[in-house]
Design brief:
Elements: E1 2-10, E2 13-14, E3 23-30, E4 36-43, H1 49-58, E5 63-65, H2 71-79, E6 83-85, H3 92-100, E7 111-115, E8 118-122
Parallel strand pairs: 1-5, 5-6
Antiparallel strand pairs: 1-2, 1-3, 3-4, 7-8
């Protein structure tokens, strides 16, 4: 089975707010071996939670990884059988890797910090 994952982004990070994102990444992933089959970037003409929800439905997205999302849109997408990892604070790459490795959870804060002069990733 193929899964489609959408991540609203702001630069290299997961967008802090779903309704303010103007750029998204869409990944098509093989669920058998977690291999990325396609990666696309879509730039939206303006930030709109309604337009983003429409894009999620028309693109047949299975999973959304995002920052803050209003309850109205969260409930709507869940009703439409979309799996949502919300309140994620991370680079989009760290969040996506966490998802592929089955270690991402809603509310995760993934960041790198310095400990004794070495970068340590906190998950």
């Amino acid at each position: 089975m193929i899964k489609k994952i959408l991540i609203p982004i702001s630069g290299d990070d997961v967008a802090p707010r779903f309704d303010l994102a103007t750029e998204v990444l869409i990944f098509t992933v093989s669920s058998k071996n977690s291999e990325v089959e396609e990666e696309r970037t879509i730039v939206l003409p303006r930030a709109s939670a309604e337009k983003l929800c429409h894009l999620i439905l028309t693109e047949h997205i299975h999973v959304v990884i995002c920052g803050a999302i209003e309850d109205e849109f969260y409930q709507f997408l869940r009703w439409k059988q979309v799996i949502i990892y919300d309140a994620v604070i991370a680079t989009w790459q760290d969040a996506f890797d966490g998802f592929l490795e089955d270690r991402l959870a809603p509310g995760d804060i993934l960041y790198t910090r310095m400990v004794e002069g070495k970068h340590v990733k906190k998950i």
